[in-house]
Amino acid sequence: MSKLWYKKKSPLHGSGLFAACNIKKGEQVIEYIGDKVTKREGDKRADKQIKKAEKSKKNGMVYIFELNKKYDIDGGVARNNARFINHSCDPNCEVEITDNHIWISSIKRIKKGCELTYNYGYAFDTDYEEHICKCGSRKCVGYILSDDYWPKLKKELKKKK
Question: Got the DSSP string for 119-131?
């Protein structure tokens, strides 16, 4: 199988992955890989990365991805190009966890040259305002949140007006 993606500067955020050819709906595009760690270790690594970013005044990218109830994948390794896929409120990909592998798969036909995106699925919590969305889609809700929380966000934003 030839590589379905290439990396370049993204108009959304930093670097992104883009379709190297037309991609069919339902195709596994790239596997999210890295160190398999316990939840406890995943939390430690995430906290360490955030503290390091705060000290250096740089944006702290955390690439800890939940694999299952017991393990996470720390995708902050050079060989994990899937970490460059950006969030969108109107994504063309989704996450599938199959046989303890995290795959990014297309949910619609993607034309060659289009940026690959998925909804990061963040939970609604008190820190939601720290996760500003820059996707620019017509469906954008302004924050990186699972679409399950969009109704709750709408109510919260109404209260603040």
Answer: ---PPP-TTGGGS
Count CB-CB contacts under 10 A for residue 30.
Answer: 21
Look up the pTM and report it: 0.90
* pLDDT above 80 (res 60): no
Interval 65-75: pLDDT, tens: 999 999 999 99
Mean pLDDT of the chain: 92
* Count of Cβ atoms closer than 10 Å to residue 123 Cβ: 10
End-to-end CA distance of the chain: 52
Is 3.20.20.80 the CATH number for 5-119? no
Average pLDDT over every residue of 6-32: 96
CB 40 within 8 A of CB 69: no
Contacts of 21 (CB under 8 A, 6+ apart): 2, 4, 112
- Asked if residues 69 and 76 have their Cβ atoms less than 8 Å apart, the reply is no
Task: Parse the chain into domains and list their residue ranges.
Answer: 5-119
Residues 65 and 82: their CA atoms lie apart, in Å, by 11
